[in-house]
């Protein structure tokens, strides 16, 4: 399996590649956790356990991202509901269940993005979450 640096160096499109590398550095600095590949196309930081009512468990990164063709996709384990105030200040984005879509990293407030990443990571890294 490729390293995160190798994966990001192979991202198609010069702008998307540069944005992905910048986002990786931002997340690493905000969390203090090393980047790791989670599957073939997602870079994650840290890990938490999730336990379902069925008893099934698993490990997942509290913060991860994937450079997709249309947007950088940031995944937060706890979703975005607790962060409405930060999202209002972030800049252009859309959200889905647990996904934050950024079309252009240059258009968002880096300080707000850093705060969002840092806070969410601190609330989930190393913990067990029961949805």
A few lines on this structure:
The protein is α+β, with helices and mostly antiparallel strands. The protein has one domain: Aspartate Aminotransferase, domain 1. The chain is 35% helix and 25% strand.
Number of domains: 1
Order of helices and strands: HHEEEEEEHEEHE
SS-based structural class?
A: alpha+beta
Average pLDDT rating: 92
Number of H/I helices = 4
* Proportion of residues in β-strands: 25-35%
Helical percent range? 25-40%
- CATH names the topology as Aspartate Aminotransferase, domain 1
Trace the largest sheet across and list its strands: 1-2-5-6-8-7
Q: Per the principal axes of the C-alpha atoms, what is the gross shape?
A: globular
Descriptors for this entry?
131 residues, alpha+beta, Aspartate Aminotransferase, domain 1, three-stranded mixed beta sheet, 35% helix
How do the strands and helices of this protein lay out in sequence?
Layout (H helix, E strand, L loop, with lengths): L3 H6 L4 H18 L3 E3 L5 E3 L2 E4 L5 E4 L2 E5 L4 E5 L7 H7 L3 E3 L2 E4 L7 H15 L3 E2 L2
Parallel strand pairs: 3-9
Antiparallel strand pairs: 1-2, 2-5, 3-4, 5-6, 6-8, 7-8
Folded structure, characterized:
The structure is a single chain. The protein is of the alpha+beta class. It is built from 4 helices and 9 strands. It has a single domain (4-129), classed as Aspartate Aminotransferase, domain 1, CATH 3.90.1150.200. It is 35% helix and 25% strand. It has a 6-stranded antiparallel sheet. The mean pLDDT is 92.
